[in-house]
């Protein structure tokens, strides 16, 4: 059984753990994720499993997606995700992966998602640049300042903080502990925050750098 699930971020709250300590948690609706395709090293050159998430109406997906899901005997879903494996999987097409089978309470996980989009932003918000004086008459409040384009160094350094697009990038938050699993509602409560806005798609996997 794989230890990876697609899910949807629902929001943050706080609960008491077993030692009566108040813990901030993010609630994620994870799965159930039916297996749509199983790839093997013999047929495809590598081992992988493709899972689906988010039931939807058949009219909301494309014709190729309908055929792909119908071939596996799976209803229409909004998201598909391929998960690479280091060894052949025992899963078969049509099997369903749930929070009960994938994770357990107290386990460390990584959560992958897309951060909130902020649009075009200046350097003060984007990179926390100090800016100029805030006093009256300075006319230099939230600008970037010198970037070295005159004599020294005579060019702009690589990776210089500049205004630009902020957010909407892939991010992974590592080593979050599962505080509670609500199996009947397909919910996973992880300690701390995860990328993205409420309702955004996330991927939960067993932590790859967790200390035993």
Q: What would your notes on this structure say?
A:
- By secondary structure, the chain is mainly β.
- The protein is built from four helices and twelve strands, in the order E-E-E-H-E-H-E-E-H-E-E-H-E-E-E-E.
- The strands form three sheets. It has a six-stranded antiparallel beta barrel with strand order 1-2-11-10-7-12. A four-stranded antiparallel beta sheet has the order 5-4-3-6.
- Strand 1 (4-16) and strand 2 form a beta hairpin.
- It starts with a strand and ends in a 6-residue tail after the last strand.
- The model has no long low-confidence stretch (mean pLDDT 91).
Q: Number of DSSP strands?
A: 12
Enumerate the strands of the largest sheet in spatial order, edge to edge or round the barrel: 1-2-11-10-7-12
| Strand residue content | 35-45%
Provide the gyration radius in Å: 23 Å
- The low-confidence runs, each spanning 5 or more residues with pLDDT under 50, are none
SSE topology string: EEEHEHEEHEEHEEEE
CATH fold-level name of the largest domain: Double Stranded RNA Binding Domain
Q: In the CATH hierarchy, what is the architecture of the largest domain at level 2?
A: 2-Layer Sandwich
End-to-end separation = 20 Å
Number of helices, where a helix is a run of at least 4 consecutive DSSP H or I residues: 4
Helix content: 10-25%
Q: Assign the structural class, choosing from mainly alpha, mainly beta, alpha/beta, alpha+beta, or little secondary structure.
A: mainly beta
Mean pLDDT: 91
